[in-house]
């Protein structure tokens, strides 16, 4: 009863939120399927997903069809009389054991082929170390001496407080925005070395088809190569429960043209070469989000290969 | 010899049961202990369900309206632990206690005092676990999977969590030993293994799974305990340990555990569908072998729960293939159930309705399971609401509906009264509609990118979360009908008769309703067994 009462008090607010959400371009009702993504791998994953989905639909039509047929035709109320001799049929049983095996093998082959491609981390052009910590991400451009932290952006962070009074729908990309995005070039095979500083996290950007756990003491590898014509902002979230603020450590990847990326990297490297003085920190240096009194610690133990 | 035997028989027919609280606390009777297990399970179902309602309340819309994220994490963790170890596992043990002796022609379980112990451990285990809500730092919030290093950040609740798991494990192992000993030694002479009812078969296999994997879980959590308190570093990389090793050990327990939760439901559905199709089970032996195959395969698929931890390619391919293989025996079962209904004479009383919902909705959970086996696609599904939808489809309309079907099937036998069919049918339709409103949209949420175990979400996930929450509240409220129905049935109703259902078969229907205190004081004769088996 208490729940029902609370629900009733929630309903008007809920309707309002729905209306506000519907006014935006990304209304929720159409969010039904996996995105096709912007990398070759993400599209291959999408295709696998759709293939296995349609295989399931086809099997479902046959199996559910037979069940519904039985429910409709063999009803006692329609005078159906049970055929009690129908308890065994070797031929039929053989068929429905063997046919699924063939279907599974047919599915396993393309899946294995894609998996082999995903695991191929050779010939990468840029390496970035990604460290998950409670609760944010650190990105290290290992060859260029660039390193910075990425946290939930300030507006989301204010709105997400318990009973903040701020309507999430009024915040741009609520919970999916960060202060410092990971900047990468298009059409470049970017290799990520993923590790964790404290507990296990998981770096996930659906549009790239990449999800890899960030484990303290381990370095995991992943890679992505964004289509040349698809620069833009791509968003993801931590996908492994990592404590209180697990839901509040998004990932934003800012994919730029190769020239823009090179310029950004050069500028960033120059900034970071200046002696670090907190009083006149250059704009763009990692700000500490409000409410976070201690700056996040980079990993204290040197990660070793698994 | 004749005299002591006659004495024993006359003894057994006397009403020897103690009265008042002693009847329950000191009980060594399989039916009384079964009843206590079922009441315990039902209580935990409502407590775990209460946690689920609070979760759906917070997720009704974006923004945090009710709970601190840490408390939200406690709710998800405790919901899982209470439902798995408190509601489903004791529920199955309760049904095993009630039905296995009756179905095999035995007077009681083989080890009655062990039976008492294995039940009475549970209230202590769960007092410890649920009590952790009230200690500094709050209840465990690291997920029911207890992955280190996160779980090592738990506050004062940490040892309570570990010891309660130890107790639950001990209780399960004792219960499983009792089931195995009973089945192996207490069958009426002419009931060979391949003449046992499917419910007994699936429980026998479940009991072996329990004995095989509960000690593994106990070992894993003991290593957590020593890591936390005694300076070991089993799972700490800085000390030479390996956090991923915990996941391997945990899921070596965890995957067979999934089948521990579902196999008895397979057994119950295999009893109910023939009864209400008025036709013997199609492919009885295939069903037994399929169950055994599923149990075997459950030991070699565990790493499909952790495809994103970064395993070698060969390991990922191996676990993908073994996982896909499970679809074969599972398919055989679904096809056999369908073939049992084919050319039958079907009627739709509440047990059959729940068995049918099981059949349709468990199959949907099976389909999403097949999708999850495809490793590259799993990278996108892993740790999203798609997984949440998948395992709730196999656990709620799967395990829970299977259990409810069993209760609806045997309740007239237990109480001697027929229940309110109309109320049962209402309970069925409300549960089935709301469970789909609750869980089906979660497939969409997961595919669209919503991670699981988050207290708040991006605005584009609002609509389907609201739908899911409404389904959740509807499902939760509908369950009170079940309690009302059972309450009414226990306290009166039309006499059920020995064979409560027209098409029912099996030895339990040869006993009176309700059955005598000591079920079969002498083994049923072959004539009785044959009568029980015929249709």
Description:
Chain A is an alpha+beta fold and 306 residues long. Chain A folds into 2 domains: 40-118, Helix Hairpins (Orthogonal Bundle); 126-280, Cupredoxins -  blue copper proteins (Immunoglobulin-like). Chain A is built from 5 helices and 10 strands, in the order αααβββαβββββββα. In chain A, the strands form 2 sheets. Chain A has a 5-stranded mixed sheet. The longest helix of chain A is centred in the first third of the chain and has 34 residues, at 40-73. The model of chain A is unreliable at 1-25 and 279-306 (pLDDT under 50). With 535 residues, chain B is an all-alpha fold. Chain B has a single domain, classed as Cytochrome c oxidase-like, subunit I domain (Cytochrome C Oxidase, Chain A), CATH 1.20.210.10. Chain B has 17 helices and no strands. Chain B has helices spanning 2-13, 21-25, 30-58, 69-104, 112-131, 157-185, 198-229, 243-277, 284-297, 313-325, 327-341, 350-373, 375-381, 385-415, 421-448, 462-490, 526-533. In chain B, helix 3 runs antiparallel to helix 4 (69-104) and helix 11 (327-341) runs antiparallel to helix 12. The relative contact order of chain B is 0.10. The chains are: A alpha+beta (306), B mainly alpha (535). The interface between A and B is large, with 114 and 102 residues.
> If classified by CATH, what would the architecture of chain B be?
Up-down Bundle
Low-confidence stretches of chain A: 1-25, 279-306
Name the overall outline of chain B: globular
Q: β content of chain B, as a range?
A: under 5%
Structural class of chain B: mainly alpha
Oligomeric assembly: heterodimer
Spatial order of the strands forming the largest sheet of chain A = 3-2-1-5-8
Rounded to an integer in angstroms, the radius of gyration calculated over CA atoms of chain A is: 26 Å
Give me the CATH fold name of the largest domain in chain A: Immunoglobulin-like
Radius of gyration of chain B: 23 Å
Number of domains of chain A: 2
CATH topology of chain B: Cytochrome C Oxidase, Chain A
Report the top-level CATH class of chain B. Answer: Mainly Alpha
Strand residue percentage of chain A: 15-25%
Q: Runs of chain B with pLDDT <50, length 5+?
A: 1-13
Number of E-type strands of chain A = 10
Count of individual helical segments of chain A: 5
